[in-house]
Amino acid sequence: MTLAAEDTERSDAGRGGRSRAGARRFDPGRLGAALLPWALPIVLVIVWELASRTGLMSARLLPAPSKVAVAFWKALVDGSLVTHTLVSTQRAFIGLAIGGGLGFALGLLNGLSRRAETLLDSTLQMVRNVPHLALIPLVILWFGIDEEAKIFLVAVGVFFPIYINTLHGVRTVDGQLVEMAEVYGLDRRALVTRIILPGALPSILVGLRYALGFMWLTLIVAETISASSGIGYMTMNAREFLQTDVVLLGIIIYALLGKLADSATRLVERRVLAWHPAYQAPKEAGR
Amino acid sequence: MSLAATARTPDAGTAAAPALPGGLPIQLVAATKSFGDREVLRELSLDVAPGSFLAVVGRSGGGKSTLMRLVAGLDQPTRGRVAIDGEAVTRRHPDVRLLFQEARLVPWQTVEGNVGIARGPDWRASAGRVLADVGLAGREGDWPSVLSGGQRQRVALARALVGAPRILLLDEPFGALDALTRLEMHKLLERIWLSRGFTTILITHDVAEAVALADRVVVLREGRIALDVDVPLARPRRELADPQAVALQAEILDAV
Ligand SMILES: Nc1ncnc2c1ncn2[C@@H]1O[C@H](COP(=O)(O)OP(=O)(O)O)[C@@H](O)[C@H]1O
Ligand SMILES: [Mg+2]
């Protein structure tokens, strides 16, 4: 996250971040490069399908991709897929908003104020050592199997990655910039909004991406253990009826939701970090 | 304010903006600065005339930046007095600007956003004006990361010029630039100083730079002034091997 390396002699027209956006032309070499990462998954799916059809692999252990596709279609048509996905997504994001909001606020507070940090940080670091999934029995005692239980677990799961990365980001903002801002008469509020928060943002976004991972993970576990709706419930229910295809479908939906959230964060990253040299050259941006 | 009457008046021809206020006098009276039991500045007394250009030369660790921080109000003297326009400096003075060795541009602000970092009234328009002054018209929307080292220092200079400062402090701002870019920056700084008339203190370890730019050169050694000479060379200066300049450089080098 150091920004010092790009120095002298990288100057002049045509290197401006903006002029580049229009430069995307059709290029068969580039299309090939874009498809390349998909080659292996496609081959694997084909092999899997063939293995199922020829009876090489038991359909009860692992149904063919086409069976999963049919299960997908059925669940889509009867509406259950949409309902369960919405319920899960809602739980996930309410938990993220609560836990992430708290993590951000406390990270910012402790990053800005030594006194707050002395008071809070060691306690928080201690709590951090408790794996949050270990709280499940306690949480069930507290909340039963209601919505609160799942939201609480997700909130605890996302709190720490956001808290720690916000704190770290605020702490590592370039002190020279802060001094400059003081010399140029920025007040405390302008200092936070114009220097400290944007400076901490790359780190905060890293925290957010970790948090999204924890968010889905926590939710899967929580829904699998106790729920009457959601993707986790859908898969557990299917397990009882030995519907392996639906179980697989649930796993795939989780993967897709996770991937979607991650891609959204990357998109946000690319937008708000447009100033960052790593997001300016198309070569680096491609990866 | 009585001293301001004697200040250099800005060149009428170059100043398109409303009349510039000119420079303020700076005064140090037996100023001592210690860190622990280490005296970095020792009973330093120095009068800087309003609108003049002073260069401070000295070895690294000689207390030059400390002197600068006292004048900028970033630090207080342990004993003695630092005054701007007759008033003791106790905090940041609104008419004083500081240029650091590094440009210290905010990477997530555009060139324009950096120049107008304090977001004063009409900041976009003022940013455009000072950017044109330092030869960077049309670069308002660029990110700092696409600029060269010299261009970054120009942006930093433009940022310092917003709001018509009356004192400009420069702490080795050209040290990291290549020789040609440095010469360009010298010309630019001299032109802007001539047209705006602020009081300037330039810290440098480059004796030739001091003689090329300043009216007066002070050598700081072990916290005291070891040499104080005027530089009576005509302006605008051209950095050729003027025999008078060479003699002055030799004298200063001896004192460093
Ligand atoms: N905040 C500080 N605390 C302790 N020592 C300092 C501090 N600032 C400067 N010094 C010391 O004061 C001396 C002069 O520093 P400085 O003014 O930066 O020198 P120069 O700019 O001439 O190289 C150095 O020895 C430095 O270590
Ligand atoms: Mg220094």
UniProtKB/TrEMBL annotation, chain A:
Record's function text: Probably part of an ABC transporter complex. Probably responsible for the translocation of the substrate across the membrane.
Family listed: Belongs to the binding-protein-dependent transport system permease family.
Cellular component, GO annotation: plasma membrane
Lineage: Bacteria, Pseudomonadati, Pseudomonadota, Alphaproteobacteria, Hyphomicrobiales
Major site of localization recorded for this protein: membrane
Chain ranges of the ABC transmembrane type-1 domain: 81-265
Compartment(s) where it occurs, according to its Swiss-Prot or TrEMBL record: Cell membrane
Keywords: Cell membrane, Membrane, Transmembrane, Transmembrane helix, Transport
GO terms classed as biological process: alkanesulfonate transmembrane transport
Pfam families (alphabetical): BPD_transp_1
PANTHER family listed in its UniProt record: ALIPHATIC SULFONATES TRANSPORT PERMEASE PROTEIN SSUC-RELATED, ALKANE SULFONATE ABC TRANSPORTER-RELATED, MEMBRANE SUBUNIT
Domain of life: Bacteria
UniProt protein name: Aliphatic sulfonate ABC transporter permease SsuC
InterPro entries: MetI-like (IPR000515), MetI-like_sf (IPR035906)
Species: Methylobrevis albus
Membrane-spanning intervals of the chain: 31-51, 92-109, 129-145, 151-170, 191-221, 241-261
Membrane topology summary: Multi-pass membrane protein
Positions of the UniProt region annotated as Disordered: 1-22
UniProtKB/TrEMBL annotation, chain B:
Ranges for domain ABC transporter: 26-247
PROSITE patterns: ABC_TRANSPORTER_1 (PS00211), ABC_TRANSPORTER_2 (PS50893)
One MF annotation (Gene Ontology) recorded for this entry: ATP binding
Superkingdom of origin: Bacteria
Keyword terms, alphabetized: ATP-binding, Cell membrane, Membrane, Nucleotide-binding, Translocase, Transport
Family statement: Belongs to the ABC transporter superfamily.
Protein name: ABC transporter ATP-binding protein
